[in-house]
Amino acid sequence: MRVLIIDDHHLFRSGLKYLLAGLKLNTQFLESGSCDEAILLFDADEIDIVLLDYYLPGQDGLSALNIVREHFDCPVVLISSEDQASVIRNAIAEGAAGYIPKASSPQELVAALKLVLAQGVYLPPGVLGQYELKQWNEESQAKREEILSDLSSRQLAVLMKAVQGKANKVIARELDIAEGTVKSHLFACYKALGVDNRTEAVYATAALALIPAKEFSMSPA
C-alpha cells in the first residue's frame, strides 16, 4: 500500500506517518510539500491513496483537490483544520473520498483511513449529524443489510468507485463495462439508498458505514 502525503509542513507529515503505523499494513509512505512537486516526483500508478492538506500555499483546497485527482487515479482524502460543514460538503461534491479534520484523535484517523482503504467513505460524525437521514436513525443496521442483499456485487462495485470520486468513464474502464451500464447501476444504487445524486450517495454510504465485500464478482453486468 503506497500512501502519498501532500502537506507543506514537514513536521506534520512526519507525525502523520507515525500515527498511520497503526494501520498495521505493509505500507510505503511517500511525501511531498506541494501538488506540483508530487506530480513531478510520482507517477499516477505508483500511488494507492493520497492524503491532501486542504490549505497549501497559493492554493485553496478545492483547486488542489482537482489538480491531484486529475493526475492520480486513486482515492484522495482531505485533511484539514477546517471543519465547517459547507466546506466538507463542497469537497465531497468535488470528488474527495473522505474528509478528516486535524482535530481528530489518532484512533479516529486510523479508523477513517481503514474505511477509505476498504472502499468506504469517511465523513466527520458532526457533519453526518447535520445531514437528514431520518429513516436510518434507528434502523441503519437493517437498512445496510437490505441494501447489501438487494444490490448485485457489480452494482456495489460501481457505487463504491463513484462515492470515491471516480468519473463514470473511469469506472467503466476499470470494471470493463459500458458507460451506459455504469449509469444504470448508479441509478439502481441511488434508488436503493433513497437518494438523488452522487453527493447524497456519499453521505448515505458514510452514514450507513456501507462497505462491500473485498472481492467483487466479475460476472457480466
Map the helices and strands:
Elements: E1 2-6, H1 10-20, E2 28-32, H2 35-41, E3 49-53, H3 61-71, E4 76-80, H4 85-93, E5 98-101, H5 106-117, H6 125-130, H7 140-150, H8 153-163, H9 168-175, H10 179-193, H11 198-207
Parallel strand pairs: 1-2, 1-3, 3-4, 4-5
Helix pairs in contact: 8-9, 8-10, 9-10
Strand content: 5-15%
| Biggest β-sheet description | 5 strands, parallel
Strand order of the largest sheet: 2-1-3-4-5
- The arrangement of helices and strands along the chain is EHEHEHEHEHHHHHHH
| Low-confidence segments | 132-136, 213-221
- Give the overall shape, derived from the CA principal axes: globular
| Number of β-strand runs | 5
Q: Structural class, from helix and strand content?
A: alpha/beta
**CA-CA gap between termini:** 29 Å
| Nearest-integer average pLDDT | 81
Rg of Cα set: 17 Å
The residue fraction in helices comes out at: 40-55%
How many helical elements? 11
Structure in words:
The chain has 221 residues and is an alpha/beta fold. The protein has helices spanning 10-20, 35-41, 61-71, 85-93, 106-117, 125-130, 140-150, 153-163, 168-175, 179-193, 198-207, and strands at 2-6, 28-32, 49-53, 76-80, 98-101. It has a five-stranded parallel β-sheet, with helices on both faces. Helix 1 (10-20) links the parallel strand 1 (2-6) and strand 2. Helix 8 packs across helix 9. The longest helix has 15 residues, at 179-193. It is globular.
